[in-house]
Specification:
By secondary structure, the chain is α/β, with parallel strands linked by helices. The chain has two domains: about 1-70 and about 105-155 and about 200-305, P-loop containing nucleotide triphosphate hydrolases (Rossmann fold); about 325-395, Sandwich (Immunoglobulin-like). Helices cover about 40% and strands about 25% of the residues. The strands form three sheets. An eight-stranded mixed sheet has the order 3-4-2-5-1-6-7-8, with helices on both faces. Strands 9-10-15-14 form a four-stranded antiparallel sheet. The protein has a three-stranded antiparallel sheet with strand order 11-12-13. A hairpin with a 2-residue loop joins strand 3 and strand 4.
Length: about 400
């Protein structure tokens, strides 16, 4: 099954584009599910059909769903209290009733990740369209499974489970409490769940579509988001320019003056905004697979409006993002790791080698990635940003690299 993740700056019409994309695919015969994490029913308002905690058929082949973060949060907390009964009793803690539990910040995002995992492993749908939060929150959300798995492995290493029979003895000898069996079991279950979500996000058939209004602010946001998604190894298969004004399209509805404005003032404002959009569109067209969605003159409501929006199709899947290691030992004595980082700025990049991992920072975003096996026996010999790629040079470590005779 293919998954399309849709995000962009806040207030740019992400939900509208997600709904229009799902509708187009459904009307072409593709069994489609559109997911949203919004607390308010923006998705339902756009589709013209209320959506909620249970999947609902918006029209043939199209299902819409907003997962219930509150219910799942209550279930998780109740289960935790049951498993941690002994520890809570020792602390004199009072139990929380399910009725008094309010989801903490981030619960909606976790519910969306679980729903994404469940939908992707289901055989009910052929296409999953995900209406993600605004780009910065979406990036943090997509990074969560990988980061949480790192934390779990560091705090509760799986290899230590082999000594679980010795933990009571070790606890008495050391005089300190040892992690309980249920804690390791819970960590193992979480690791499996997070791995399933990570597999969906990292699947070759998973792509990202950015939605932005053309203009200076939109251009900065698109460049930053593109770099951040590349850092996560995700492919941006299309940039959707939303709410494109007349002047950049053949439509002239906005050129008509409103009763509240002088005709010349209204026309001049439209021309100014349209000129800014045209400049941004020309720049985007050189770099991205650009799709322009014109302003309808009103907020889209219902499938009739959505069908009129020329969103990109879902049949074409771009090639996956690759991070190849190029062998230049014969010519330059180095191996070069190519990491695509479209839109990256050299001054915002930072690299730190830490054991068998590389910490890559691009602006406000950071990722810790394991080194390919060959590079673990090398030392970093330099790096450069060229043609949208971060190229890191590794020289073989004489003490670790096999000798040739």
């Amino acid at each position: 099954m293919r998954t399309i993740l849709i995000t962009g700056p806040g207030g740019t019409g992400r939900t509208t584009v997600a709904a229009a994309t799902a509708l187009q695919a459904a009307r072409q015969g593709t069994r489609t599910l559109v997911l949203s994490a919004d607390r308010t029913d923006t998705l339902g308002a756009v589709l013209g059909v209320p959506t909620g905690t249970e999947p609902i058929e918006a029209e043939p082949n199209l299902t819409a769903w907003r997962p219930d973060a509150a219910e799942r949060f209550r279930e998780d907390l109740t289960a935790f209290q049951q498993r941690a009964t002994t520890a809570l009793d020792l602390l004199g803690a009072s139990r929380l009733d399910a009725e008094e539990v309010t989801p903490l910040p981030g619960a909606e995002e976790l519910a969306l990740l679980r729903a994404l995992r469940d939908a992707a492993t289901s055989e009910t749908y052929d296409l999953l369209v995900v209406d993600l939060p605004p780009a910065p929150q979406a990036l943090a959300l997509l990074a969560l499974p990988e980061e949480l798995r790192r934390y779990l492995r560091r705090l509760l290493p799986p290899e230590r489970q082999a000594a679980r029979a010795l933990r009571p003895v070790l606890g008495r000898l050391a005089g300190v409490p040892m992690p309980a069996e249920w804690l390791y079991e819970t960590a193992a279950r979480w690791d499996l769940e997070l791995a399933a979500v990570e597999a969906v996000v990292g699947d070759r058939a998973t792509t990202v579509r950015l939605v932005a209004e053309p203009g200076p602010a939109g251009s900065d946001a698109v460049r930053t988001a593109t770099t951040a998604f590349a850092l996560r190894g995700l492919s941006v298969d299309a940039l959707v320019a939303s709410r494109v004004l007349p002047g950049a399209t053949n439509d002239t509805w906005l050129s008509r003056p409103s009763p509240d404005h002088h005709p010349s003032t209204s026309f001049a404002l439209v021309e100014l905004l349209a000129a800014q959009q045209r400049k941004a569109l020309d720049e985007w067209r050189e770099t991205y697979d650009l799709h322009e969605v014109p302003h309808l003159g009103h907020d889209p409501r219902g499938t009739g409006d959505l069908a009129a929006l020329p969103v990109p199709g879902v049949n074409k899947t771009p090639p996956p993002v690759e991070w190849p290691v190029v062998d230049q030992l014969a010519d330059d004595g180095v191996l070069v790791w190519h990491i695509p980082l479209l839109g990256a700025i050299r001054e915002e990049l930072d690299l730190v080698r830490r054991g068998d991992e590389l910490v890559v920072t691009a602006g406000q975003f950071r990722r810790i990635v394991p080194l390919p096996s060959a590079l673990r026996r090398c030392t970093v010999a330099g790096a450069a940003l060229r043609e949208g790629e971060l190229r890191i040079r590794f020289a073989p470590d004489p003490g670790l690299w096999p000798r040739t005779t």
